[in-house]
Each structure stands twice: as C-alpha cells, then as structure tokens.
Design a protein that fits this description.
heterotrimer, A alpha/beta (about 500), B mainly alpha (about 350), C alpha/beta (about 350), B: ABC transporter involved in vitamin B12 uptake, BtuC, two-stranded antiparallel sheet, 14 helices, 2 strands, C: about 350 residues, alpha/beta, 2 domains
C-alpha cells in the first residue's frame, strides 16, 4: 500500500472503561477509493473504535491520521466539517421536520450574503435536489421525515453525509432495514462514492453483502485487531473463523424438528383495518417453523401484528385447534397461548432501565403471586434463573440492567420472557436482527428446540438464507398479500424473490 | 386520499367519521358558537367580534412565547408572574407626574419605547435563567419554571411592597396602548390589537425563516440529532426561553395599561390559559410541531368559548368545568393524530 | 388554513340564521370571587332581590383576577347587558375602576359598584363617580366595622378581664389576622379593632392590649395571598401555639380577625391545641371576627367564638338591586330607597353594620 493512497490511518488505539479493556491496540487503515468492511462480533470493539474516531470517546492512546495529518476530533460536528461522516444504524433524525431541514440542520443556507440568520428555503431546496440527483435518490425534499419508510430516511442520511463532501463515510449496518432493490440502489451509490475517491467504512453482519461490496476487510475480536485482508481472498467460513476465533462451519443447526400433521392454527382471510394487509389465509402445524419472507413493506410485520391483535383487523377469522378465537387484543392473545417478539427490540421489546429479572417476569407476573396479591421475589428469581439457564443468557446477575447486555443476549431475555407465558404459538419478527453470528446460531438452536417441544413458530426475516436454513415452510408476502408458499428444504432464493415481486 | 366515490359504503362512513374526529375541536366550537348565537343574537354582531378580537390580541403574545417552549417539548410556568412584575415596572415608570402617592415621586415618565424594551429585557432575563438551567443542567422545564415563577413573584412583592399602582400617564394608556385605532359603533379597536399583529408577524418570521427558528423545531423534534449536526442546543433553548420571556414582559406592559393599574394578582394563572390555548391550537407536548396559525386559532377559540359563556350568563362554577373539559378534549384529539393506528 | 375557511363559513351561516333579539333586562353582576363566604350570602340575596325588581341577574366569577373581570365586563357590554353591577377585584387602585366606568360610559349603561372599595382615597372615588350620572357605590363605611369590632372587644375584655388574663400578669396579649395587605377595609379593621378596644380599656384604668410578639412591628399577621382565608389564619395560629402557650406562660389571650373566615381558622387551630372545643369546662380564648357568616354564628352558639360584626347581606343586595332597577328604568337613582341606608355625598350608599354575639 503506497502511503499517498492512504486516507485514514488509526493505529495503536486503546480505550479502557472501568473494568473492561474495550480497545487494545486496535488499528484500521482505509485506502482512497475503497470500501473497507469492519467486521467482528458484537462487543468486538467496532463501534468503540468509530466513537474514538468521531471524538465521542476520547482515546487513551494511539494516533489517528487523515490524509497524513494527525487529527483528534472533539465531537462529531468537527469530524463532519473535516469530511468524516457516519450514518448510524439507529437513525438520529428530527422526524417532525422535513427532509431538507434535516440535511442542512446546523448549517442552513442563508439569504443573500449570509450575514443575517435568515434561512433561504430556495437555496436549501436547490442544494438538496443537487445531491439527490447525483445519488439518484427520488425523494421530495419537503416531505416530513416521519411519513417516510426507514429505507428512505436512511438514503436521506447518506445524502446528508455526501452533502458534507465527506472523504470518509462510515455506514453502520446500512442494509438492516432495506429491501433487496433498495440494497442494490445503496450499492450503486456506494460504488459511485468509491469512484469519486471516498473511503467507505462498512460495518455489517451480513457476510454475503460484505464479500460483494468491499475491497478490504478488517476483522476485530475482543477489542483487538486480528487481520486486514483483501475481500477477494476471503471466504465466508474464513471470516467467521477469524471473527469467532474458532471453526464455525455450519451457520445453522441441523433441522431435526418433526412437524406433526395436526393443524394448530388456521388463518382465514385476514385483512387489516389500518394497513395494506389483505385477505391472507394459511395454516400452521404443530411443531412447525413457518417462515415469512417478503420485501420490507410487504406486510410481513403487519401479518404478525394482526394475528396477535396488536393491530386492528377489519375482517378475517382465526382458529386454534379448530376452535374460533378472537385475539382482538394482545392480552387476549397471550391468554390464547400466543407470544409476539417484536421487530424493534429497543422500542417495543426491552425495558432498558429495568433489570433482567424485571424484564423476564413482566409478561407473566400473575404466576408469582403469594396470597393472590403479593409478588414473591423467590418465585420470580427461580423463573428468571430458569430463563437465563435455558436461553444461555450471558449476564453477571439477574439484577443487571438489560440495556448493558449485547443485542443477542437481550433477544434471549425477551424470548425467555415469552416462554414463561407458556405459549403454543410464537410469532417472531426479525429475531436475529443486529445480532452477531455466534449469537444467531444460539437463537436458531433455541427456535428449533421449541419446535421440538411441540411449539409452533412463525418467523419473519429479511435474510433469506436464514429462512431457508431454519424453517420448514416459507410463506412469501408481496404488497400486503400472500404471494405463495415454498418448501424451505427445496426452494431457492430466486424462487422466493420471484414470488416477493408478484404484487410489489 | 383515493377517490371517495370508489370507497365502499362502510369505508365511506369510516372516512367521514375520521374526518369529523380530525376536525372535532373546530366542529365542537362551531356548534357551541351556533348555540350561543341562537340564544343571544348579539354574539356574532360586530361589537362582540371586535371584543373577542381584542381579547385574543391581549392573550396572543404570551401564548406565542409558551408555544416556543412547548415546541421544545418543554413548558413554561413563569409567564404569568413575569407579566405581573413587568406590569408593575411599566406602571411605576409611567405613573402620572404628580400623582398622589407616586411610587417613584421624582420620575417624569420616560420614552414609551424605552419602557417596552426595558420590560421585555427583564422578561428575557427570567427566560435566560429558565433556558440556562434547562439546557445546561438538564433540569425538567416544569420544575425550573415553577421555581422562577415563585422567585419572580417574590421579587415583585419585595420591590413593590404589595402596593397597587394606578394613575398611569395617559401617554401610556389612552394615548397609546388602549388608543382607539378606529371605531365601529361604540366599540373601538384598540392599539394593542395592532401591536399584537406586529409581534405575531415577527415571531412568525423568527419561527419559519431564521436558522434559530429551524433549530428550535429540530431540537424539539430530536435534541440528539440536532446536537450531532452541530446545532448549539444550549443556545437554542436559552434563545427560545428568552424570546418567551420578552413576550411575557410585553404582556405585562399591555396589561397594566389596559387594566389601568398594576396589582399583586395581575398575571396570576395567565400561563395556564396560554398553555391551554396553545394546546387547543395543535402545538403538541410531544415537541417539534406547531404553527403560528394554530396558536392564533387556539387563543381565538379559547376567547370565543369564554365570551360565549359570558353571553349565556353561565355561572363561574360551570365555566371552569367547561374550560377544563375543552382542554382535555383538545389534548385527546391532538394525541390521536400522533397515535400510529395499528 | 382549511380551519379558518370552515370557521368563516360557519360564521356566515350563523349570521344568516340568527333570530331577532329578545329584549331581556339582563343585569350582569361581576363578583371578585365566588370563593368568598360572605359574598356568597350576598349573591343568594341578590338573585332574589334582582328578580323582585324585574331584572335578571347574571353572575360572573373573576376568581380574584382583575384582568378576568375586565374581560368579562367588556364581553357583557357587547352582549346587550342592561346594567353592570361590579364587585371590583382590585380595591385600592382607582385606575381599574376608571377603566371599567369608561367602558360603561361608552355604552351609556348603568354601572353600580358594590362591597369592595374602589380606592383608599374617598375624594378620588367621589371625583370619579361624580363624572358619570349612572353610577354609585354601595358599600359600608370602611371604618365602621373595625370600630364596632373594637368597641365590642373592649367591652367584653373589660367585663371578663381576669378570666381572659390567663397568666395573671395584668396585661392581655392578642393576635390580629389581616385579610389582605393592601385592602382598604382590612387596613381600617386592623387599626380600629385594636384602637377602639384600647380606648375603652384605658378609660377604665386598664393597660392597653399588647401584641403577643414584641418583635413584630406591624402588629398583625397578613394572608399573603390576600384572600382573607381560614387556611392562612389556621397555619399562623398553629405556628404561634407551638411557641406561645400556657406552659411557657405566654399564651395568646385574645384573637382578633378581619373576617369570620379567618376567625374560623384560628378557632380550629385552637381546638387542635385543646382550646375552644365547645365542651364543658374547656378553656376558651376569645375570638372575634367580622361578617356574621353561618359558620361563625354556629361557633358563637357553641361558645367557641365570642362575637362578630354583622354585615347586612340582604340590605346590601336590596340596595344594589333597587338602585340598579332605578337606573335601568330611568328614575332617579336614590328613588324610594330604604331609609336605613345612608347616602354619603351623593356618590355612595352605606349599609349599616350590627354587633352579633348570638341570637
């Protein structure tokens, strides 16, 4: 690597938090005009490294050079002004404001000579359109953010980074909420930025994507630098080996559950009141893992929410074990033996400031009552211990706040919570989103174990390999309707994609 | 909305019901107004409308100030007492020369403009304290402004010695604030209506056309995002509360002239009325949303209701119940808009 | 914008459907607060008296706020009121009354002020009211209540001197509760309630009353909210009793309050401490008030309070209603007025007080 081609060099970065060495001599070198994937399991130190770059954390030791000059940003604004931008996984935007207000927030174009603090809407609009045209983004700059899907909001965030003329753009899990076509569009944009000479730091768990889009791959483990390789020299298994530090040849556990012939649930023509979900019918067998595939707004999540009564149904019937059931509210559904693991873990899953025990028992509190009204600490601790053991949750204690756990462990706590309500039918919405490879395997294993115990699972996922690897059967949604059904053991990704595009 | 005709009958019904709910506040108030009108035909005659307009003009500046604070997802309880203090200061500065028991016996009334600027500056200082405590120490606006409300009142009582000030200079009262711009029958449209219009225009400009205004909405909508984008959040919060304080200061200036004096109860609970009006006008406590037109409409509706009840001769007791109910309904309808339907 | 259009449309509709006016003789009565106990008795009487005079009384509550009242007056003017009857919130600020009177003048309507004084300066009030034909103030002579209360106290203390002097030091210590710092009547009652009592005592060779707390130069405790409330006096009394009691030999031996509400608060605090319980043999600290409210009358009947000054609520209501009717009907304002009421200088009608120490 010739020195003049190097855009960003971070070397010898150390960062210690009380009790934890988060970064230990970490390094990262990004060349001009390349996409550089930064990989590692959750907790490997990727985000800490990025926070040190942006000055959100101050590093204990080490040096950062941008274009050969040593830099030490104090905050993310200073980084932005020097051409270093980050698009966060969890978009941090002013949702009530429109697109261009968000892009130019903090540096609004001003009227005339710019001496007065009066904003020029016209300049702002034109500048926004210019960036959008360059990137091929088709969004009206005057749209209010909250009315747009996450994928478009993410495009806006990328456009914002570009509008700063950034040399380095960090993309943190950029595809986690994008559909296939949107991913393609994003890749086009990334390629364009690469051609311009930008350096892209790409953080993702999706290995297929990384192998496709990146030039270089840096792998981290336990806060340490492990290796930097050219992407073309790497295989998926090799990456996994470097990341987990051991061989992990199988991404999925063996599918050894037995599906019974007995129907446990029958769904007849459900149509949603407030969403585009229309006339969906299917049946679910005992011990079955049923996948739901589809593009981002195909109605997958809505299907689960309608079954669970979290969303209002306009019409349609539900039967469990042949008997009609209402499931009009979440409460009723829980009583009927349903459980729903929501898609947005942070927003609707965990109670961040509460501890693991509280998070575990919250849905089944009635079971821990003494004398009918006093909560028994002993009973709650017992059940929480069961959950921690059964789910292999890694935590110092039951009293640890859930937000200090990794995503995978949080998800296991929630799964444990639902199992305590003793459901027969689990509705899982993106159960492995934002979870690292090792932890994903454990979640798959848990799902299979549940099926083997005779429980039935409906699992929504955007990752087709995951659906094919874990499920018995896959429903494909498209444009709010059921487009078809495939056998997971024989179907291909192409087959699913074709169905997913049916009504889109 | 898709073609209305294309909808099924059931959907049509739902569409109409939704439309009615979205505009329920306006419908309720129109129905109320129609009822008042049928009982007391003078309600929608010019003098009555001018009266409601004048009352709106009095309340509007404070509501605009509070609205800014609510857009920041905060609130401000100090308004009423700030107005009380500045009313007193305006009154002692502009007391008639040679009035018996003059508070500042040797003072000849200074230039009016100076007095307005002075009291607005005093209000802004209270706002500065509010905004600084909130932005710097992350205190909850409720508690900060509750504290400054008490402090302001205490300062007022100490300085004034609980004295009531009257005999104001006519250059201040009848020749300026309450001066008749023009008359419609016996009802005159006073100067403070014009002043309110000017202030509202200025505030509209600040909200919608300046970087400060845009920053205010951004901070209210997502403080973190604003900070990351390099917005000076502290300065924005301080600015919004100072602007609010200045508007409260102006309110005090007008009130003393309008009522013909300053007293200890002046300003009491003004902030609650202002907050109620702002909420009726669709400025949400969620933060980040609100329009000047909404605030005007909110204050106007509030006055329409109050005036309507006076017309009907409804007793004070019932007035409170109706007022409270209207606020509650307005909030419910407002939240309904932000609730994502599932 | 759509909302404005909808509103405008509705307004036009309403103007179109509005029926012709019914000529009702509405007298709007503006009360400074519905929360005042004595005024509530006047309000009840006023409703009756107004009806007898052929007027329809419409009561409005300003909740103690002048701004609210001014708004209500302005609204009433445009609503077609026949007369304004005002119990001003701010007594002591002539500017306020002037603003209200000017509003009435503009509509050439009768405007009767009552109960609460318009200013501390009678000459100022006279000058203002003389400027308009259709106005008058119906009240009481400010100093009368205080003077009568003082006389009553002086006589009572003289008659029961040794029983009242709990610590036997020959001097009676007292506490005075003032309703509102700036209110003219409160000022007079506070002054004369003690002065007149002292005059009687010293004439009989006894020492003057002594304020219980020598450190307090003002010699009264005031309701900081200016609402003459029993809450204020209750809390004061409770605080006092913690420090001044029989065990310390410095018990407060006499309680004087500007009104019965405050007297009631003091009695309640005393009751908590074991005094004025109304039970057989319980010690009674003499408590005096003004207004003769129902609650005070009951306390007096039970022996828990000694006396009060009766404001004639029915007389007040009768005078106001009568004068208002005269003005509305174009008669002389004092036409056929009850002779018990004193007309002062042509601008004021004074309703007499009476001592009340039980039926």
């Amino acid at each position: 690597m010739a020195e003049q081609n190097i855009l960003l060099r971070m070397e010898g970065i150390c960062k210690t938090f009380p009790g934890v060495k988060a970064l230990d001599n970490a390094q990262l070198t990004v060349r001009k005009g390349t996409v550089h994937a930064l990989m590692g399991e959750n907790g490997a130190g990727k985000s800490t490294l990025m926070k040190c770059l942006f000055g959100i954390y101050s590093k204990d030791a080490g040096h950062i050079y941008l274009d050969g000059k040593e830099i030490n940003f104090k905050n993310s604004r200073e980084a932005l002004d020097n051409g270093v931008a980050m698009v966060h996984q969890e978009l941090n935007q002013a949702l009530k404001r429109n697109v261009m207000d968000n892009i130019w927030l903090g540096r609004y174009p001003k009227m005339g000579s710019g001496k007065l603090p009066v904003v020029s809407e016209k300049k702002m609009y034109d500048a926004t359109m210019k960036v959008f045209d360059e990137l091929g983004v088709k969004v009206n700059p005057k749209t209010v953010m909250s009315t747009m899907p996450v994928s478009q909001r993410q495009m806006v965030e990328i456009a914002k980074a570009v509008s700063f003329n950034s040399k380095i753009i960090v993309l943190d899990e950029p595809t986690s909420s994008l559909t296939e076509t949107e991913v393609e569009h994003l890749f086009e944009i990334i390629n364009m930025l690469r051609d311009r000479g930008c350096g892209i730091i790409y953080i993702s768990h999706k290995m297929e994507e990384i192998l496709r889009i990146s030039d270089d791959v840096t792998i981290m483990r336990d806060g340490q630098y492990i290796a930097t390789r050219a992407a073309k020299d790497l295989t998926m298994d090799e990456i996994i080996r470097l990341m987990v530090g051991r061989e992990l040849t199988n991404r999925f556990p063996p599918k050894d559950n037995v599906v019974s012939n007995e129907n446990i649930m029958e769904v007849q023509g459900i149509t949603a009141m407030y969403s585009h979900l229309k006339d969906v019918s299917f049946s679910l067998k005992k011990g079955e893992i049923l996948g739901v595939a589809g593009l981002d707004s195909s109605g997958r999540t809505e299907l689960l929410e309608n079954i669970f009564g979290y969303a209002t149904r306009k019409s349609g019937k539900l039967f469990k074990n042949g008997k009609p059931i209402g499931n009009k509210t979440s409460r009723e559904s829980i009583q009927n033996g349903f459980a729903l693991l929501t898609e947005e873990r942070r927003a609707t899953g965990i109670f961040g400031i509460l501890n693991i025990q509280e998070n575990t028992v919250i849905s089944s509190l009635k079971k821990y009552l003494n004398y009918g009204f006093v909560l028994s600490n002993k009973k709650m601790a017992e059940k929480t211990k069961w959950s921690i053991d059964a789910m292999h949750i890694k935590t110092p204690s039951q009293k640890t706040k859930i937000r200090s756990l990794s995503g995978g462990n949080q998800q296991k706590v929630i799964l444990g919570r639902w199992l305590l309500t003793q459901p027969d039918i689990l509705l899982l919405d993106e159960p492995t989103r934002g979870i690292d490879v090792g932890a994903k395997y454990e979640i798959y294993q848990l799902i299979l174990d549940l099926a083997k115990q005779g429980k039935s699972v409906i699992m929504v996922s955007s990752e087709m390999p995951e659906l094919l690897g874990v499920c018995n059967r896959i429903l494909v949604m498209s444009g709010g309707r059921l487009a078809g059904e495939v056998n997971a053991d024989t179907a291909t990704q192409e087959e699913i994609m074709t169905l997913a595009a049916k009504y889109a | 909305m898709q073609n209305f005709k294309a909808l099924s009958n059931k959907d049509k019904g739902r569409y109409i019901a939704n439309w009615m709910l979205d505009h329920a506040m306006i419908i309720i108030i129109i129905l109320m107004a129609i009822y008042v009108q049928s009982q007391k035909p003078a309600f929608f005659k010019i003098p009555s409308l001018v009266n409601i307009l004048s009352l709106t003009a009095v309340r509007l500046p404070m509501a605009l100030g509070v609205a800014g604070c609510i857009i920041l997802a905060g609130t401000d309880l100090s308004g009423g007492r700030v107005a009380g203090l500045t009313a007193f200061i305006s009154a002692i500065l502009l007391q008639k020369a040679g009035a018996s028991g003059k508070f500042l016996p040797n003072l000849t009334p200074p230039n009016l403009l100076l007095v307005i600027l002075a009291v607005m500056a005093i209000g802004a200082i209270v706002g500065l304290v509010n905004g600084f405590c909130m932005g710097k120490f992350k205190l909850h606006p409720f508690i900060v402004t509750l504290a400054t409300q008490m402090i302001t009142y205490g300062v007022y009582l100490t300085v004034s010695g609980s004295k009531q000030i009257s005999s104001l200079d006519t250059s201040y009262t009848t020749s300026f604030v309450t001066k008749s711009l023009f008359k419609i029958g016996p009802t005159s449209v006073p100067m403070y209506v014009l002043l309110a219009i000017i202030l509202t225009a200025i505030v509209w400009f600040i909200w919608n056309k300046t970087t400060f205004g845009k920053n205010m909405f951004a901070v209210g909508s997502n403080e973190e995002a604003a900070r990351v984008s390099g917005v000076n959040v502290l300065l924005t919060i301080v600015g919004v509360f100072m602007m609010a304080g200045a508007l409260y200061g102006y309110t005090g200036f007008v009130e003393a002239a309008r009522l013909g004096g300053s007293t200890a109860t002046l300003g009491l609970n003004y902030e609650s009325d202002a907050i109620a009006a702002v909420v009726i006008g669709g400025v949400s406590f969620v933060g980040g949303t609100g329009k000047i037109s909404g605030v005007i409409l909110g204050v106007f509706m509030m006055q329409l209701i109050m005036s309507g009840m006076t017309f009907l001769g409804i007793s004070g007791n019932v007035t409170y119940i109706i007022k409270g109910a209207v606020i509650l309904v307005a909030c419910i309808l407002d939240m309904r808009k932000y609730m994502v339907k599932k | 914008m759509k909302k404005f259009l909808a509103l405008a449309l509705a307004l036009i509709m309403m103007l179109a459907v509005s029926a012709p006016a019914l000529a009702a003789q509405d007298a709007y009565v503006f009360w400074y607060t519905f929360g005042d106990v004595y005024l509530s008795t006047v309000r009840d009487a006023m409703d009756v008296e107004m009806k007898e005079e052929g007027l329809n009384a419409i009561n409005q509550d300003a909740n103690g706020q002048q701004a609210t009242q001014t708004d209500q007056v302005n609204t009433a003017l445009v609503s077609g009121a026949s007369a304004l009857v005002i119990n001003v919130c701010e007594s002591g600020s002539i500017g306020v009354a002037e603003t209200l009177l000017n509003a009435a003048k503009a509509y050439d309507l009768p405007c009767v002020f009552f109960n609460r004084a318009l200013s501390t300066d009678d000459a100022e009030v006279k000058a203002l009211l003389d400027s308009y034909e259709k106005t008058v103030f119906v009240g009481t002579l400010f100093d009368q209540a205080g003077k009568m209360q003082g006389d009553m106290i002086g006589q009572y203390v003289l008659d029961n001197y040794d029983a009242i002097d709990l610590n036997g030091d020959g001097v009676i210590t007292y506490v005075m509760f003032k309703g509102d710092e700036a209110n003219q009547e409160a000022i007079f009652r506070t002054q004369y309630g003690v002065e007149n009592a002292d005059a009687i005592l010293t004439a009989a060779g006894k020492p003057a009353l002594k304020f219980y707390d020598e450190g307090n130069a003002s010699k009264y405790l005031v309701d900081l909210n200016g609402t003459w409330s029993n809450t204020a006096s209750f809390e004061y009394m409770q605080t006092i009793l913690a420090q001044y009691n029989e065990a310390n030999g410095n018990m407060v031996e006499l309680v004087i309050a500007n009104n019965d509400d405050m007297a009631l608060g003091a009695v309640n605090a005393l009751t908590v401490a074991g005094y004025n319980t109304g039970e057989e043999g319980a010690k009674v600290i003499p408590v005096f008030g003004v207004d003769a409210t129902d609650a005070a009358k009951e306390l007096i009947a039970n022996g828990r309070m000694v006396g009060t000054i009766k404001q004639d609520n029915v007389g007040m209501a009768d005078a106001v209603a009568h004068i208002t009717a005269n003005l509305v009907n174009g008669k002389d304002k004092f036409d056929a007025l009850n002779e018990n009421y004193t007309i002062v200088d042509g601008w004021m009608v004074a309703i007499p007080y009476a001592v009340y120490t039980g039926e």
